[in-house]
Amino acid sequence: MRYIKEAFDTNWIAPLGKNVDEFEKEMASYIGVAHAAALVSGTAALHLAIKLCGVKQGDVVICSDLTFSATVNPVSYENGIQVFVDCEPDTWNMDPRALEKALKKYPHAKAVIVANLYGTPAKLDQISQLCSKYNVPLIEDAAESLGATYKGIQTGTFGNYAALSLVVLKNKTRKEYTGIRSEGSKAA
Ligand SMILES: Cc1ncc(COP(=O)(O)O)c(C=O)c1O
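ok -> structure tokens follow
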């Protein structure tokens, strides 16, 4: 309410301002990364990551198969081709053994997108090691796992890019704050 009142008092609502800057800083510092950029939705964050990976018509992107459709829709927005990698029984997330098979079959894949489903992290160390080994950028879809850690490290920090989302479900109202993280020279 305070911020809504402030918006009326100052007549400043959009496009950006100190609240968004602070939100980005807090998000980056909370998960422990250098930069975060706030976007309108998790889908937009994933779409930006796909663009930053240079996905163009006909490019292969290796994706989790058990996930919300927003994980993979942005590949279609750029006319890329999703190659789905099956999940494993323990985490229900991308199976690193199946990922390695896919990376061998599609060595020119433009990106790998791994989702951390229902707040449970994928085997992010193995998956990021495989992406480094095959020199394919990793996009971490951490929209469902903000605050979850893998081996003591916050999810949303393992890929070259990550999409995060803060979802509040209350009285059938869904408020989302989403953003993309980027690192080093790839800063968005
Ligand atoms: C796995 C996953 N990825 C991405 C998203 C982002 O979707 P949205 O564009 O609705 O914020 C969601 C939202 O529920 C999700 O569950």
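The pocket of pyridoxal-5'-phosphate is lined by residues 41-43, 67-68, 70-71, 115, 141, 143-144, 165, 176, 178 (CB under 6 Å).
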